[in-house]
Design the sequence.
């Protein structure tokens, strides 16, 4: 996977901001799992790659989404979680 591709950029990104003193650093995967839990989503639901790619491409076109350095990881994660939620509602 090339270093400029969105999955690689997101996987290697770090969350901006400060954590409370003494609090352990929260990794990217942990934050995604927490956000997914907030939407009652499981990893198994994310494993339907065909539906995931279809919905992701549609959402990117709808939003005319381009990743720039000004976007934070939180914004990207929120878009991804919203795509999961839209996918589940459409299957519903």
Sequence:
């Amino acid at each position: 996977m090339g270093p400029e591709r969105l999955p690689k950029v997101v996987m290697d990104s770090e969350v901006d901001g400060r954590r409370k003193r003494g609090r352990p650093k929260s990794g990217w995967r942990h934050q995604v799992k927490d956000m997914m839990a907030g939407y009652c989503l499981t990893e198994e639901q994310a494993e339907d790659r065909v539906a995931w790619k279809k919905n992701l491409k549609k959402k990117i076109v709808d939003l005319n989404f381009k990743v720039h350095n000004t976007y934070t990881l939180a914004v990207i994660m929120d878009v991804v979680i919203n795509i999961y939620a839209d996918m589940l509602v459409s299957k519903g």
Q: What stands out?
A: The two ends are 33 Å apart (CA to CA). The mean pLDDT is 69. The helical segments are 6-12, 28-38, 49-63, 73-91. Residues 24-90 form one domain.
